[in-house]
DNA sequence: AAACCTTGTTCTCTATTTGTTCTTGTTATA
DNA sequence: TATAACAAGAACAAATAGAGAACAAGGTTT
């Protein structure tokens, strides 16, 4: 697939820095910022290291964009466990017709530890009434644990037909994937398993009554 | 559909300013006000940044309207800085048959700023199904703003007959206080106003799906 | 209604920041 | 010794940011 060049020490150090930076800030660093953080004096040399990370598919190629040093998503991005910090990304509205990966810049929301798991979580806002029978209303927030599998009966966030994100109850058989709304007036929808990509499962829900 | 250009540093700074301004003032700022707040000297350059925010659908297009720089979403404005101290007391379970004042020592729960008001708030856990038609289930948490008055239709926490705490919809007339559950199978209850003491009104709700 | 001020918009020009590509030299390691 | 890893810095180009002038539409005062 790809010629895996193992990372050198320095490259690891830089990658580590990027991961940590990514956890705390929502803008990527500049080369100069990385330099001063790591005690380097030359952007040029740093850039060569970054280039290796790009080749290793750990960093997105940032074509001259300023602050374009961003980690590649979806992969095995190591998560630094920081139990004191329970601010997690708010990625916008569900059913917005966009794959979640597309969300470029986000803000963070602090949530109670009771509403999240140990794993990577994010927040979405619900649009629509498809889950009202389970007490999830329009404009509620939901906390989602990021993962790509679920068991039957779980409430999941799924990317359907590669163009729509939706919150439903999942029922999987080898030949079919059924997404069931929790709303008496709506019908379950049947899909080819290939057309449903699980993006996370529901772990929490919140609602504001402030007007 | 939409080519998400990530925000540049300056654009983020401006957006952040708008969010904070929005939370404290009730009129949008003028370009000049933003300029002097951020130390800029040219409306023109600022305007270009604002234009990017409009393209990113973060700011409404303000067609020459004065003070027309308003954020796109009203309720769901992402909070960028959420580092304030929002740990509030957890006072135990509702309907526990004890006036809340009696709770001596309590733990604190961190909640998102979106779920609380500026005033004193606390958290209770719901016992029972009296509010399920409004999506408040058994074992949900509710965030309550502490106060002793409410208007008709508010969802409130009340101490009834000096021995029971309950979460209901309130309806007040000079001669009667009616507490209505949100559950088709339960009946409203009528009280002498003297026997119902309002302890707070509902401002937020949370639910955990982790088991 | 007219005169006036405020404020959003558009434009041009310039400055600064920052990613990229070099060349050169040093240090570590097999 | 040979090779890879690393560092520094110069030079360049694109992206980003800023200043200021001129204009037009909105509001306000007279």
Describe the structure.
2 copies of one chain form a homodimer. Chain A is an alpha+beta fold and 211 residues long. The first copy, chain A, folds into 2 domains: 72 residues, Winged helix-like DNA-binding domain superfamily/Winged helix DNA-binding domain (Arc Repressor Mutant, subunit A, Orthogonal Bundle), CATH 1.10.10.10; 119 residues, Umud Fragment, subunit A, CATH 2.10.109.10. Helices cover 18% and strands 27% of the residues of chain A. Chain A contains 3 helices and 9 strands; from the N terminus they run αααβββββββββ. A 9-stranded mixed β-sheet of chain A has the order 2-1-3-4-9-5-6-7-8, with no helix packed on it. In chain A, strand 5 and strand 6 form a beta hairpin. In chain A, helix 1 crosses helix 3. The radius of gyration of chain A is 20 Å and the shape is elongated. Chain A starts with 8 loop residues before the first helix and ends with a strand. About 10% of the residues of chain A have low confidence. Chains A and B meet through strand 1, strand 2 and strand 9 of A and strand 9 of B. Strand 9 of chain A pairs antiparallel with strand 9 of chain B. The first copy, chain A, binds a DNA duplex (30 and 30 nucleotides) through helix 3.
